[in-house]
Amino acid sequence: LGVARKVYRLDVMSSPQHWGEPTAFVEVFKDEELTLECGMHANPPASIQWSKENEILDEFEEVLELNTIQPQDSGLYTCEAENIFGTAEKKYHVTVYQPAEITSFPPNQTVIAGNVFTLECEAVGSPLPIVSIIHKGEILASSADLEVDGMLLDQSYRVKSKPYALQTQQFLATKLSQYELRLSLSQANVAEGSAGKYLCLAQNAVGFDERSSKVIVYVPPHVQLNKLKAARNFAILEGLPLYLFCPIGGYPKPALSWFRNGKPIKFNGQTLFMSATTRKDQGNYTCLGETSFGKAELSFSVGILIPPTM
Questions:
Q1: pLDDT in tens, 252-264
Q2: Which residues lie closer than 8 Å to 8 by C-beta, 6 or more apart?
Q3: Which architecture, in CATH terms, is 14-97?
Q4: Is there a contact between 122 and 104 (Cβ–Cβ < 8 Å)?
Q5: What is the domain partition of the chain in residue ranges?
Q6: Closest C-alpha among 84, 85, 81 to residue 40
């Protein structure tokens, strides 16, 4: 009597088979780490090949690791497993988000009135951010105005103009890359009202950023004709007071000086005042305003009338 036993080892051959769904959608943020697993079972073991957007990658392991991932790493990743019995694929649709971030916006800018000035704001983000430039609570330029039927800007740019305080503004948006945008605001014949703080705001679905820029408009000295309070050629009786007002403005504030018949007199403000005039006060008066950006002058002709004497 006895027992006989024979052991058979059954080795089942198979083509590559993936675990789970054949397609997966993955969302991550910039600078995170991402691990993609091929998840294939095959006998004999399959060879592995990874690709991105149908371009072969130099990756042959079951696991694909992406460190400090960037928006440019977004796309369709495919793991292809192959042995003598067949092939199988595992696909990952990877989206990398990056909150909107302003990369360039000058903190300060100066311009002389009457010239052209341009303000540029560059931002990056995924999705591509909407960029706007704001002044005194008004949106002067926005890339949102340049979208058509929900489609993003192409590589070229579109230009818009708008009237603003009797000035013409133009803005354009240029797509520097899939995730970078530059918004430029140009204004011709700049006036004093264009001075102040400008805000650049960049925003997308996952964040926003803002920066400010102080624009200083230098205004050469000029006569503010709307502020002239009296005639510039007149005569008064001797003994009466003389009052002359010199509305010369500018930025920075001009230094003012007065002249009578070409000779300087001791007044240095906008107002010249004499409490009681005499015959010698008759003549041509000139107010001169000066800065490093220029000068302007305003002249008055003053006659002194002498009452008849007995």
A1: 999 999 999 999 9
A2: none
A3: Sandwich (2.60)
A4: yes
A5: 14-97, 105-218, 224-305
A6: 81
